[in-house]
């Protein structure tokens, strides 16, 4: 290849790279605009989830935090709810509250997703012929506080992988063909902003959330013609007990909403946004967090987790490690 041809090829490659860079930038700006404007429109739209998807939803991890709030929000919109969690007492209390406040039917299933396929088989069996029209894969587990890999108990690591990766995969497989046969349905996979980059001191947790993002995108492609809405939610920080290792994450604010505020908005995006953080201010945070190169994001994430780790030690009166 002559020098001129070589330079021409490099120039052409540069044009292609710039084209896709600006295309991605424009798309990101559109997503940011949508995140800014959506709060003024989405919550006020009167659409019937029952009419679009059906009468029954199943929510995993539904007795605390986002899962509980999401189940209540669905019930307030007339959806009957199957509540799945490992604590029977909490399940009964949550089911009772939903039935009293929302006048819908509930069903409870006690299942511990750290048991893997056995838990999924139990859920499927107890659902029987009940049509699960909306599946919310919310159950998740993270570290007790930010830790170096060698500090995390082996059993805890195994549980994080089994719950965060195994449950979303096997639960989806258990119900997706029924939805395909009916020609409608929705699957909501709840991930985390931790998926944005490798996350030091939450190494395995962050990796499992990146899996959910990849899994959901590929699944949406596979079932594009099946009439199924497949949504990926990637929230930033929410004021729930999962983040109880730091007091600064236990104060609700515009940037750190409580579970109820988050769920109200997140449910409103169902059927409208396949990829969403689920909350307007999280959309803005996600956009700006995506701008730096991955290595910078990873460094910032690592420094942030070191700060949160210190918060935990201070609160517990533990000497820094």
Automatic annotation (TrEMBL):
Family of this protein: Belongs to the short-chain dehydrogenases/reductases (SDR) family. 17-beta-HSD 3 subfamily.
This protein's GO CC annotations: mitochondrion
PANTHER family, per database record: INACTIVE HYDROXYSTEROID DEHYDROGENASE-LIKE PROTEIN 1
Gene3D superfamilies, A to Z: NAD(P)-binding Rossmann-like Domain
The entry's keywords: Mitochondrion, NADP, Oxidoreductase
Compartment(s): Mitochondrion
Classification via SUPFAM superfamilies: NAD(P)-binding Rossmann-fold domains
GO molecular function, one term: oxidoreductase activity
One Pfam family recorded for the sequence: adh_short
Leader sequence segment: none
InterPro entries (UniProt xref): 17-beta-HSD3-like, NAD(P)-bd_dom_sf, Sc_DH/Rdtase_CS, SDR_fam
Protein name in UniProt: Inactive hydroxysteroid dehydrogenase-like protein 1
Coiled coil: none
